[in-house]
Amino acid sequence: MTAAGLAAAVFILLLNIRSFTIFFSFLESPVVLLALLGYLAFCLRSGPQRFENPKYAFIAGMLVFLSAVSSAVGCLLLVIPYLLWNWINFGHLQTVSAWQKTASFSPLGSWNLISSWCLHQFIPRVQHILGLNGISPVLLLSGLLTAGTLALIYLLTGSRRRQIFEKLRFCPEFLLFVGLHTVFIALVAPQDAAASAWYWVPELLLVALVAGVGVPEFSCRRFSVVPVLVVLLAGLQLCIYPRLVQRKTMSWAKLEVAQFLRENTSPLACGVMFDSGVVSYFSQRDFTGLNGLIGDFRHAVLIKERNYLAVFERNRIDFMVLDTPATLLDGFRALAIYTTVMKTKFENFNEPPKPFMVYKGSYEELEDIWKVRYKGCR
Description:
The chain is α/β, with parallel strands linked by helices. About 65% of the residues lie in helices and about 5% in strands. It is built from 19 helices and 5 strands. The chain has helices spanning about 5-15, 15-20, 30-45, 55-70, 75-90, 95-100, 105-130, 135-155, 160-170, 170-190, 190-195, 200-215, 225-245, 250-265, 275-285, 295-305, 310-315, 325-330, 365-375, and strands spanning about 270-275, 285-290, 320-325, 335-345, 355-360. It has a 5-stranded mixed β-sheet with strand order 2-1-3-5-4, covered by helices on one side. Strand 1 (about 270-275), helix 15 and strand 2 form a beta-alpha-beta unit. The longest helix has 24 residues, at about 105-130. The two termini are about 45 Å apart.
């Protein structure tokens, strides 16, 4: 691996903002990455002996076990008892959140969902963070896909292809695992996988390895290349970091809502919003989440059916918290009891900054607000 290749690999795996979220998401992703790196290091050290020597085979199996336990594919030795526990205690094999996130097995449906998310959610975020709002989302997405295709063609033509395959053939089973993992995630959990980098740890690692062995060497007599490139890449992140921090205005707006609810509503009141964790905790009020990830299976079924009126009636909802764009302000202003001072682009970056608002009304009126806000998308 060249010095420049090492810098490229480190950037892809660690230094870019999107991948770096893996390390503070409090999920199992760092464990997956550690286990996979350990397995690759073991493969380099043991070579073919990992298939022949019982001691090496045992170590390889344990590393694969650690990787599988923490990955989406899972490991039957751990999953089967877990599924039995769910069935005995709750009458279902899956948890509510797992069932809610699992899509019906449809390649076309997965493609439509992932492509739609990229165009309407991912690209607006890229535009916002890099200050590229003047470029058409379709043009920007096409440009990124073209650049990625050209980079792939560059790496897989001529001597570079032979060099990459020669350097990565020490672990063919890892390449197979990445391929199976990609297909599994894309077909089974396309919506969350499209939005969350931590689902793609094996793929990020493979891209980092390909970049590492594919970037050619270049030298400079006066200084070491790797530290300079790492500093430059880190500096680039810091330059665009203020725009990323603007995303956190979502949290500040939610805290503002929480303070209002804590001071102006009954402790017995129950609210509803899509992702209610922050507001519910800091307001000390009960909430029903319309993402359907918390609650019983009846609640999850109603969310999937988008029968929100039944959700409101079942949970005796007193108010709704919603990020409200200007197009929604006038139509339901009479039902709003609070509007945050803080405005945020999150979570729809293709919209201007908007406040969070607290609405109070009949169940039918709250359902109308929700349907107008999301137009059937939720």
